[in-house]
# Entry
Amino acid sequence: MVIMQGKITVPTLILDRSKCIDNIERMAEKAKRNNVIFRPHFKTHQSSGIGRWFRQAGVEKITVSSLRMAEYFANDHWLDITVAFPVNLLEIDLINRLAAYIQLNLLVEGVESLQFLERHLRQRVQLFVKVDVGTHRTGVDIDDHVRLERIVERIANSRNAGFAGFLAHAGHTYRERNETGVRAIQDNYLPKLRALGDKFFGPFPDALISIGDTPSCSLLDTFPGAGEIRPGNFVFYDVMQANIGSCGVNDIAVVLACPVVAVHPERQEIVVYGGGVHFSKDRSLRPDGTEDYGWMVEWTAQGWQLPEGDRPFLRALSQEHGIVKAGKPWIDTVKPGDILGFLPIHSCMTADVMKSFRTLDGEHIEMMRF
Amino acid sequence: MVIMQGKITVPTLILDRSKCIDNIERMAEKAKRNNVIFRPHFKTHQSSGIGRWFRQAGVEKITVSSLRMAEYFANDHWLDITVAFPVNLLEIDLINRLAAYIQLNLLVEGVESLQFLERHLRQRVQLFVKVDVGTHRTGVDIDDHVRLERIVERIANSRNAGFAGFLAHAGHTYRERNETGVRAIQDNYLPKLRALGDKFFGPFPDALISIGDTPSCSLLDTFPGAGEIRPGNFVFYDVMQANIGSCGVNDIAVVLACPVVAVHPERQEIVVYGGGVHFSKDRSLRPDGTEDYGWMVEWTAQGWQLPEGDRPFLRALSQEHGIVKAGKPWIDTVKPGDILGFLPIHSCMTADVMKSFRTLDGEHIEMMRF
# Structure
């Protein structure tokens, strides 16, 4: 608690640098052990400062979720970037600008987008075909070999595009609650992706299978047949990942520090300055089915820890207000002017709205803005 | 549609200036008719540019939700500002800085905060006592006259603080679905607030009752006993307000324009570049209980309109992806590179994450940032 006093006056996203670097190094080592490329997704931290910690861990290739994010990191000398999002044709000028000086890897999942790229690409890019392995968000159905073949052939004949391989995001692992469930998902789709590789990679010696959501990369030890992994959230982890089992609560590297502005003992609630514009509105469900927008921690000399016993939690958020459900002893000891800390439900979204971090040792780290 | 082509390449929040000004003028006239101060809440637009449209409608006093927002608008010459949020004691330096050159009105709901202010205020401020009229988010219970009296007396004896009156936010109107429900809420609490005024305002000729959520201010014609109204969301409205009945769909002044990046006829879905970092994650429920993150509109020569028949809607959002459920004819005609527009569920949160607007006639309007 000492570290906080006199410095924090508004909602502030606190980053435990050593937990964060541990998370990075653990994943980098797992990738090395598996002999797969580690191409972490930078959409979680969106920060050139934190990007450098990855560079120190030997990372050279990255993933981002938008072309503007690619531009931001290209400006910080990341020279091999995959935009893991169906290519946005309207940004063709930015694509050509970026592809002139970095290795730019894009995602396609239909012939229409490919036709457009063929007509408008002035620089060479690499194209992954996005494959839907069961999440049903984007991508070509993994069993639709006819459509996949049509796209691969078309890429093979494109003047300014090379075939990079098949890329999948098994986002449905987020609905699992343990290693067994996550493993079952990988055991279902990864052999199918390998079969696709066997069928189509012959003429493309550099083509590879790219996978890697945070639950799979955290809970599983091997990724047979994959050529690269792209986890993102693991850099911070959060309540959602702790609920899945991807991390321990002590691996979570960010906490949102919020000033207390009111205490209501009669309804066992504390009001904090910290709402939807600070946490975002992602939520988790408690065992009794009620909503939970963040787990309260207590400050320690080194940082924070989860309290013993009945933990206070954020039961509701409005634009700037957070409503904390808190029993004893909290409700009797907390007062306006105190600062409470909360583990975010979904750290990617919380970081995105906060736009900066403050490390436990007081360094200010900015995120990209446009 | 013509207005969009060749200009918009990424998710962009489009503002219909004439709808917005109509919303402002309609509310300003209603306040005038009722002889109440119109002190609009600027947390929805957070923009000095849009603030000037209010000035043109005769507005001189405003509401904000944070001290930093007060500072932003004070810098644009708004000189009478209420921060409608329990006072954040940790920002006492900013409070003193602001109160030196504007009329700053703050909210208290407990004696602890008042004691702190007495010790640390170096400039005069006005204090509203926040009253809980049934929302149970913040404030002193409206029936707890003992506690209310203790706070009013303490303010009366404070050296640097004046008693401004009682302030309430009937946020539980957001759970209603028509005028009758919203009226029942006002009919319940407003007489109680008047009784509080009768009991406590004697020695304070300038004290007043401040109310005014958007549903009440939109659906009701009179506010008997209130001295001022503070609606905010009405400046743009949104799907949530249309569902309550506060506005017609045609009064909604903002639409988020999103590039199409993939089309999946086999599951009747369109993928747009436009996710939780653009819309925020506020959602509405459809009649069948499924989630809805935005209503699709169709572009017209003048702006946009709701399509006839089965309307496409956003069934899910992830960080950058929006998944649109769309039947015929949409699924057959929409293609990558098109731009689709969506009415946001909660415009305050959407504006907050987007941080700027583009008017239909192409003007770029910035919001506050820190």
